[in-house]
Design a protein that fits this description.
Strand order of the largest sheet of chain B: 1-2
Chains: A alpha+beta, B mainly alpha, C alpha/beta
Oligomer: heterotrimer
CATH class of chain A: Mainly Alpha
Strand order of the largest sheet of chain A: 1-2-3
Number of helices of chain A: 15
CATH superfamily of chain A: Cytochrome-c3 Hydrogenase, chain B
Helix content of chain B: 55-70%
Number of domains of chain A: 1
Largest sheet of chain A: 3 strands, antiparallel
Number of strands of chain A: 8
Radius of gyration of chain B: 21 Å
Strand content of chain B: under 5%
Order of helices and strands of chain B: HHHHEEHHHHHHHHHHH
């Protein structure tokens, strides 16, 4: 007799995965119902790191609130700041200097690589391979050092401000980034040999957590999760911001829809990011790195929405202004929140080991989900 | 020349010269017990240190490097910490079984030590069914693991123990068949006889392809039997936090941890005995000059060298491969390894009957 | 479709809708009681195909709530913003989680932080705040002397 998946009956095993659990990478709490080793239901419980950033932002000025947003998706802090800066600029109608736009895009792409590197290591660790984590961190560390020199911070950079960037680039920046590209391209084969081509890894990933194109759209999945199912959802292509319309890069699309497809999307995206940086790094124009803006920013009455592509997917910043110095209401549409909602749908009927393999490819960052 | 055999002989003669035979027997039993426990401690500390260093090399980092030269005392310090820690017993646990489980696992590991030949004529107990004894006793450790998982009253532990049960019972078959294929060649179950039969070359070289196949199957099966990655599903950190020993702390946890390393040592020493001639030096046919040079290396060094090489192999697996899923694990055994090893056994029998081996 | 074309199509489709000027996308207000059938039409209309709900939120205007739906089409790449006014004292609205599955989580969040009840929602519980939390934190009149610092 085949029981209906998704219902709880007597004899089912209900397990709390989290809030402290090695596979949730943060304080995510999943209540999973098992029948033997087979998952019948997964129910996420959120809020362990909820700080109500949206409420906090209502009492912070347009210059101040950007610092809070670094703490949402801390792995792509630059891109969060970028989204907020763009949204405020949209309201102020400020023209950002070319130099600042180039710097922003380079920083975004470096952040994307760093974020995907961490994900890559953590993904392999979820599947029980510890070594890739350290190999990934070798490259990530180089990026962090580059960031530290220019921004003064390694994780929550707070580098992008309305009108441009906070400081000019460090004199060594271009040299170091080029050295990093060299380092990265020489190591990329190592990644494939160690993980991608591994037969155990492929067997663990293929056919797991299948998401159809329709489901991906309906559940609001974005970023590599949607692109793994063949949904073209890259905001850098759909609605280019800053200099993304001037660079050439491919939107990585895989049609597999399973964990392995999502894995491939991220790995290939890193190479596309390298491609973008290579096009920009030698052509950073001279000039101001920040537009002249007033000390106290006041947005006109109205609504402003800015979408950007973070490492995890589409981040939306929705500011409703009443003409004051603080936003009346601010909403962050975080990619992780929507991506998490498909978890239950994609792991039903799989084994516990697959939960980890599927959840890993969602690349959840819990502060981003809870906000 | 240094040899362990000489030391034991000397002690035996000295004791016999001074005491009557009953006292000598008792004294020797005590000495053997002390020596076994000392070996355990040294192996535990040494192998953990080795694992950390091997992992460090593979993960482009340094590993322990503060306590003593190359951090060699790091594991002693860790053990000291574990001894000092409180051994918690959860309220809901079945206290008797919970506290008994680590000892069962440990005692089983100790029992298997008996027939292993560490050097020439240096063996605790030379029984004529040595190999059978080893495979029979080592499978008892699953009882300890199931006991630990069940009595912890924790769902993660239970799942881990169940996985472990299924896994050990399955892989026992392949490991057993791989062992039998060598027994077919030697015609004896005694470990001493098996080693003696490799006087003119190790079975891995003499036994042609069937021996190589059974070595590969053996190493896969024992990796699974000792719950090591990529078959560490019973512990599966990212899925079950720590599996069957989630609730254990302090010295009780340390016993599980130690037993894991002792088990690795034991299975690797069995592997070395069966396929690489145990303490037997590398001999090539009747090439007297070469064989003679090899004989100068003490037999204990040969034994430990081979064993540590195999241990390194198993550590290498752990730090390279991702973990299998539970159904893939069982598929691998029942659909691939078992049929292959059955066929291989048949092949080996043919080789033995026709006398095709060297 | 351009914004002008969208406006005319939407005007024909939903006669009771009113448009709001300004903003980069078409903004339209839909009456509360018509929302559910309109949502279905927006999703399935052959020239609209708004199959992707990328943001769902609520705004507390002190006199009333506005539920804001940002809709996009993955096929034809146009975006519209739909707003529905809801009574502040008894905020209830039909769920759209059966039309866009992503709404299930977003509606739970809005329920959690604003106290808007979504009718026929499959699993309307608090998502982020603890289950026994009192009050609706993102409302403008919410007071929490312990956790909130007034500047």
């Amino acid at each position: 007799m085949i029981e209906e998946v998704g219902t709880t009956t007597e004899g089912d095993l209900v397990i709390n995965v989290g809030p402290q659990h090695p596979a949730t990478h943060g304080v995510l709490h999943l209540v999973i119902t098992l029948n033997g080793e087979t998952i019948k239901k997964v129910e996420p419980h959120l809020g362990y790191i909820h700080r109500s950033i949206e409420k906090m932002c209502e009492s912070l000025t347009y210059r101040q609130f950007i610092y809070v947003t670094s703490r949402m998706d801390y792995l792509s802090a630059h891109i969060n700041n970028h989204a907020c800066a763009l949204c405020v600029e949209k309201g102020l109608q400020v023209e950002v200097p070319q130099r600042a736009q180039y710097i922003r895009v380079i920083m975004d792409e470096l952040t994307r690589i760093a974020s995907h590197e961490l994900w890559w290591g953590a993904m392999a660790m979820d599947l029980g391979a510890f070594t890739p984590f350290f190999h990934a961190f070798r490259e990530r560390e180089t990026i962090n050092t580059i960031m530290e020199e220019t921004c003064g911070a390694r994780l929550t950079m707070n580098y992008m401000v309305p009108g441009g960037v906070m400081f000019d680039l460090h004199p060594d920046f271009q040299k170091k980034v080029k050295a990093f590209i060299q380092q990265y391209t020489s190591k990329i084969n190592e990644y494939d040999e160690l993980v991608t081509g591994n037969i155990i890894f492929q067997n663990r990933m293929k056919g797991i957590g299948y998401v159809t194109k329709e489901d991906a759209i309906s559940y609001g999945c974005t970023g590599p999760v949607a692109r793994g199912s063949g949904v073209a959802s890259d905001i850098r292509k759909i609605a280019p911001y800053d200099v993304y319309d001037k660079v050439e890069f491919d939107e990585v699309l895989e049609t597999g829809g399973d964990s392995f497809a999502r894995y491939l999307v991220r790995v290939k995206e890193m190479q596309q990011s390298i491609r973008i940086i290579e096009q920009l790094i030698d052509n950073i124009p001279e000039g101001d790195f920040q537009a002249k803006t007033k000390a106290v920013l006041k947005l006109p009455k109205g609504e402003f929405y800015q979408r950007v592509e973070t490492a995890r997917g589409e981040l939306g910043v929705y500011i409703i202004s009443e003409g004051g110095t603080t936003p009346y209401r601010i909403k962050f549409r975080s990619p992780g929140f929507s991506n998490l909602s498909i978890l239950d749908h994609m792991v039903r009927g799989h084994k516990i080991g697959d939960l980890v393999a599927a959840m890993g490819t969602l690349d959840l960052v819990i502060p981003d989900i809870d906000r | 020349m240094f040899s362990l055999e000489g030391i034991t002989k000397a002690i035996d003669t000295w004791l016999n010269a001074h005491f009557n035979s009953t006292v000598v027997l008792l004294a020797e039993c005590v000495l053997v017990g002390v020596a076994a426990i000392a070996l355990f401690a040294v192996l535990g500390l040494g192998l953990v240190w080795m694992e950390r260093k091997v992992a460090a090399v593979m993960q482009i980092r340094l590993g322990p490097n503060r306590l003593g030269p190359k951090g060699i005392f790091q594991t002693s310090a860790d053990t000291l910490k574990l001894i000092m820690k409180e051994g918690l017993t959860p309220d809901g646990a079945d206290k008797f079984l919970f506290n008994l489980a680590p000892f069962i696992v440990m005692i089983v590991a100790m029992l298997v030590l008996a027939p292993i030949s560490f050097a020439k004529n240096f063996q605790i107990w030379d029984i004529n069914i040595g190999v059978l004894y080893v495979s029979a006793v080592s499978s008892l450790s699953v009882i300890g693991i199931l006991m630990a998982g069940w009595s912890s009253n924790n769902k993660y532990s239970l799942l881990g123990a169940m996985r472990s049960g299924a896994q050990i019972v399955s892989y026992e078959l392949s490991a057993g068949l791989a062992i039998i294929s060598i027994v077919v060649l030697t015609g004896s179950l005694s470990i001493n006889d098996i080693i003696q039969s490799q006087q003119n070359g190790w079975w891995i070289f003499k036994g042609h392809i069937p021996a190589i196949i059974s070595f590969i199957i053996f190493i896969i099966a024992v990796t699974a039997e000792t719950n090591r990655a990529p078959f560490d599903l019973a512990e599966a950190e990212s899925e079950l936090t720590a599996g069957f020993h989630t609730e254990y702390s302090g010295m009780k946890f340390a016993l599980f941890f130690l037993a894991e390393y002792i088990n690795i040592f034991i299975v690797c020493s069995i592997g070395a005995t069966l396929f690489f001639g145990g303490w037997m030096p590398l001999h090539i046919g009747n090439w007297e000059a070469f064989n003679h040079i090899m004989d100068f290396i003490p037999s204990s060094i040969w034994f430990f060298g081979k064993t540590i090489f195999l241990i390194f192999l198993i550590m290498w697996f752990r730090w390279t491969f991702p973990r299998l899923r539970v159904d893939q694990l069982l598929n691998l055994e029942w659909k691939y390894l078992l049929p292959i090893s059955l066929f291989n056994l048949l092949l080996m029998t043919v080789v033995a009957i026709m006398g095709w081996h060297f | 479709m351009t914004n002008e074309e969208l406006k005319s199509t939407l005007g024909e489709l939903i006669p009771s809708a009113t448009f709001e000027e300004g903003g980069e996308w078409v903004n339209l207000y839909v009456p509360l009681e018509e929302w559910k059938p309109v949502a279905l039409q927006l999703r399935n209309h052959p020239s609209l195909q708004l199959d992707y709900l990328f943001c769902l939120t609520c705004v507390d205007w002190k006199t009333h709530f506005t539920i804001v739906y940002h809709l996009s089409s993955t096929a034809v790449r146009h975006n519209i913003v739909v707003k529905v006014k809801v009574d502040r004292n008894n905020p209830t609205i039909e769920t759209v989680s059966d039309i866009w599955r992503t709404a299930e989580f977003h509606e739970r969040e809005v329920y959690d932080l604003f106290g808007v009840t979504f009718l026929h929602h499959p699993d309307l519980r608090r998502l982020i705040m603890p289950d026994d939390w009192k009050g609706w934190p993102l409302r403008k009149d919410y007071e929490d002397p312990v956790n909130m610092i007034k500047l």
